[in-house]
């Protein structure tokens, strides 16, 4: 797999996994473990960003809808995210195109060609869809949302209470054993976080709405979890989710700002339902600014924040050039796992905290690592020159092969990469191991 990039994605992957590993080490020590640290190979970390699972004798569906992608408009580029049927319908409605029969990509391209990207972006968003026009890093820094995100901390902490009940008994080897994690996330970042927590022994129950499907990512991201469905907008679903919250120790959510509160599950209500509940929330565009409630995904944030533009300049192409992996999603996932682990450590000492993260703020971190946040030119080239390493800048064009272990999933056999972290020390140290095989969404009952 070619992984050339304008940004140091290999170093970024290793750094992100390190945050989660360090938090796991701290928690294990708090539980009496003798962990001294962890070993992380940035190449193996990057391999997990690219995909940890390889099916044998069967195939995984393609990750993108045929209409998803980058389109040239009148004066710039725009990316349409159409993987979900309702997002595809919104994009087509904004373009004045029918849903049935579904138009081809050439028809969509012709419709986009005559539209100004910013105007079309607004129309798609207003229709309930997801789109992002391509901006430079300098334009994003001057944009009200980019400016707001630059002011946010990488992880925003708020104390929300004091622990009133004892924590489940865990061990240094499995520091989250007995900890119930309610997973209200979808796509990549949140599921990466809860996969890591499951690997440390947490009981993870993922909840998706009826009809939501992620066939391209299920084998990758349902590992270690039970997955159920609930319609949170229905009376029965609202009642059941509150019962689940009351039995949880952590909630990890991936809703837009205000969306969870709109379901009657704001932080105050969560703490009322389950005093001492650890809360970790993530979204796409940040928690302040005019776009804090906007729907978004990794590929869209790359377009908005200048990353795709920097790649285009770096490689001298005439089209946006995103990162070779969805690094914002994966890195945010490991950061969210780190936040959950640190919050749980604080919970053991009686403090109850909520943490908030976003893909857009993680993008700022990547741009800082590349020395790119104040430049609209070619940050990748400048970073590569300073690093003096083709490996860091992706110039080697790929990642090494790593040992894999056999795994049986719901769909069939495959091979999974060894965990991206090896903990070190004497005596009892943590280990990443998943007890529940990967399986389809909605296969389990919505109960602990």
UniProtKB/TrEMBL annotation:
Transferase as UniProt keyword: yes
Keywords carried by this UniProt record: Transferase
Organism classification: Bacteria, Bacillati, Actinomycetota, Actinomycetes, Micrococcales
InterPro entries: CoA-trans_III_biosynth/detox, CoA-Trfase_fam_III, CoA-Trfase_III_dom_1_sf
Short name of one Pfam family: CoA_transf_3
SUPFAM superfamilies: CoA-transferase family III (CaiB/BaiF) (SSF89796)
GO molecular function: transferase activity
Region (Disordered): 376-399
Superkingdom per UniProt: Bacteria
Protein's recorded name: CoA transferase
């Amino acid at each position: 797999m070619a992984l050339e990039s304008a940004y140091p994605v290999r170093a970024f992957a290793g750094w992100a996994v390190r945050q989660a590993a360090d938090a796991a080490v701290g928690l294990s020590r708090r539980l009496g473990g003798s962990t001294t640290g962890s070993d992380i190979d940035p190449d193996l970390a990057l391999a997990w960003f690219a995909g940890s699972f390889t099916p044998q004798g069967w195939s995984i569906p393609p990750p993108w809808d045929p209409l998803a992608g980058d389109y040239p408009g009148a004066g710039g580029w725009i990316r349409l995210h159409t993987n979900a049927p309702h997002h595809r319908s919104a994009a087509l409605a904004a373009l004045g195109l029918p849903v049935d029969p579904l138009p081809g990509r050439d028809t969509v391209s012709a419709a986009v060609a005559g539209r100004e990207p910013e105007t079309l972006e607004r129309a798609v968003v207003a229709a309930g869809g997801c789109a992002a026009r391509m901006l430079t890093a300098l334009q994003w820094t001057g944009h009200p949302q980019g400016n707001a995100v630059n002011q946010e901390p990488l992880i925003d902490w708020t104390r929300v209470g004091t622990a009133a009940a004892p924590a489940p008994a865990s061990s240094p080897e499995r520091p989250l054993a007995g900890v119930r994690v309610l997973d209200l996330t979808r796509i990549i970042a949140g599921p990466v976080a809860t996969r890591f927590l499951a690997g440390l022994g947490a009981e993870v129950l993922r909840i998706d709405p009826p009809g939501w499907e992620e066939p391209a990512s299920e084998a990758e991201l349902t590992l270690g979890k039970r997955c159920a469905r609930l319609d949170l907008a229905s009376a029965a679903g609202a009642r059941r989710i509150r019962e689940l919250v009351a039995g949880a120790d952590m909630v990890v959510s991936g809703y837009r700002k205000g969306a969870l509160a709109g379901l009657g599950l704001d932080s105050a209500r969560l703490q009322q339902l389950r005093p001492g509940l650890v809360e970790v929330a993530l979204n796409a565009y940040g928690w302040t600014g005019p776009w804090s409630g906007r729907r978004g995904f990794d590929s869209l944030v790359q377009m908005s924040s200048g990353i795709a533009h920097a790649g285009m300049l770096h490689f001298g192409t005439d089209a946006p050039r995103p990162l070779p992996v969805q690094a914002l999603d994966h890195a945010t996932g490991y950061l969210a796992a780190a936040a959950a682990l640190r919050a749980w450590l604080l919970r053991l000492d009686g403090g109850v905290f909520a943490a908030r993260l976003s893909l857009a703020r993680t993008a700022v971190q990547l741009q800082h690592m590349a020395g790119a946040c104040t430049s609209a030119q070619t940050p990748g080239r400048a970073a590569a020159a300073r690093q003096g390493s083709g490996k860091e800048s992706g110039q080697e064009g790929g990642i090494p092969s790593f040992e894999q272990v056999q795994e049986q999933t719901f769909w069939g056999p495959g091979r999974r990469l060894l965990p991206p972290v090896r903990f070190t020390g004497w005596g009892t140290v943590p280990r990443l191991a998943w007890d529940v095989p990967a399986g389809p969404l909605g296969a389990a009952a919505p109960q602990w």
